[in-house]
Amino acid sequence: MPFRAHPFRQRGFSLLEVLIAALIFAIGLLGLAGLQARMLAAANSSYERSAAVMSAYTILDAMRAAVMSTTDPGTRSTLAAAYVSSDWRCSSPSGSTLPLADLKTWIDSMRGTSTNPPLVHPSACGRVTAIDANTFTYRAEVCWNDSAGGDNTDGGNCLGGKPATIISVTSRVWSRL
Length: 177
Hints:
The chain is of the alpha+beta class and 177 residues long. It has one domain. Helix content is 45%, strand content 14%. The chain contains 3 helices and 3 strands. A 3-stranded antiparallel sheet has the order 1-2-3, covered by helices on one side. The protein is rod-shaped. The termini are far apart.
């Protein structure tokens, strides 16, 4: 009795079918690896943004404490004005006044020091601008080279027009009410 092959009775897989299945599986794993890398970058960017907001509130709270520490209106205005700069502060200022000491602590904490890791990013810069000095309304801004890619390419950003992320917080540091 001659042997006849019946296609419906075939058992197992051919080598070609196994190779195609392995290729599809490998492509899926590569896609998952890429997704994982993007998720890590997004999580780090989210952390940096949260730290930047906290840092902006830190300098505004320091301003508030300094301004409220005196009862003289002229001294309040002078103290608040000492925090203001139209330029980005990317290095710690030197000096012995309270505003300069607060700004030094702020910049050092954002950028990190030799003994402390950076709170935001090693490229972080900050500035405080007056929105309305008469109502003691100020804006604290933090700018850095975001790991997930910044969207601000203005020539006036802290990186000189390269993509950066800028977080801005506005607050009144003293109220006459």
